[in-house]
Amino acid sequence: MDDPNLATKLELLKRGTLFAALGERELAIVARNSEFYSFKKDDVIFHAGSYGAGLYIIKEGTVAINKLRDDNETVAIARFIQGESFGELDFLENRLMTATAQAESDAILLIFPLRGMRFQDLLSRHPKISARILHELLAIIAGRIRGANRLISEKSPWVQELKRLLYYDKLTGLYNRTFLEEDLPAQLPGYGMTTSLIMIKPDNFKAINDAYGHESGDKALRHMASFIKSHLREQDIAVRYRGDEFAVILPGTDMPGAIGFSEQVCRLFSRITFDHITGGVPIMLTASIGIAAYPDHAGNLRDLVRACFNKMFEARERGGDRIACAG
């Protein structure tokens, strides 16, 4: 039976590097073992946790590859447009997908092999074609690795700019939560015998937002960030954790040292002036601070953040303007 979409399939397959070594007859076999599928905007093409089932070539539309972070926030890690393909490695190994593919617009995808068919079945029926596809796939992977090695140099401007965009908070210029959760864990053991983490939450920051608006609130956050940063040592790291919450990593600092630093922050916090924001109306902020130390209170950064965060809220629930320590 003739395939009415055969010519369109062949045209799309010829664009892909994976099938570049195939002749017309071999391409026709691949085309007959492929099919077009339509997806509406926001339709899920495959879920994280499902097995890789095919190579996807986009005829029309845009597809996002999304990953769920530990904090249950979904982030787009890749985006594919018309003519591009994805899923090569996963369908070959029939391995579990680690991300979800979702149509960002109405889309038509050519999927190889047909749904319900395994690439291993095609291997046994058409070994020569399969061998050529595998050879091209290995060449593609090798090229990607070489390209990545050229680009991913810690000192390259490209990587430095990427890190700046990924790990810095745009509003305050401090490190952000992504840095704290994704980059810092690998560095933590190298900071010495002990490292302390403190988390700071202004008790009455909402008063500025409510009285003067969110734009003034943003100015106040930048002002507080500058204040915190100005009291750090060279090796200390300040982070805007979320909203009006800040974290400070104190490498090589034990609990007594962290308590001393936190007491200083509490004393000085009330002296921050916001006259340039409030138009001269006096407002005094106090802070709730939580402290925890690695490895005394946690063996990894995730648990350290959790312990410190809980202590910060304990201080807040006890009336604020105080410090609560883990242990």
Give unreliable regions as ranges.
none
End-to-end separation in angstroms reads 74 Å
CATH architecture of the largest domain: 2-Layer Sandwich
Largest sheet: 6 strands, mixed
- The CATH superfamily of the largest domain turns out to be Reverse transcriptase/Diguanylate cyclase domain
Helix content: 40-55%
Structural write-up:
The chain is α+β, with helices and mostly antiparallel strands and 327 residues long. The chain has two domains: 6-151, Sandwich (Jelly Rolls), CATH 2.60.120.10; 161-325, Reverse transcriptase/Diguanylate cyclase domain (Alpha-Beta Plaits, 2-Layer Sandwich). It is 43% helix and 23% strand. The protein has a six-stranded mixed sheet. A four-stranded antiparallel sheet has the order 1-8-3-6. Helix 1 (6-15) packs across helix 2 (24-32) and helix 8 (205-212) packs antiparallel against helix 9. The mean pLDDT is 85.
Keywords:
four-stranded antiparallel beta sheet, alpha+beta, 327 residues, 2 domains, Alpha-Beta Plaits, 43% helix, Jelly Rolls, six-stranded mixed beta sheet
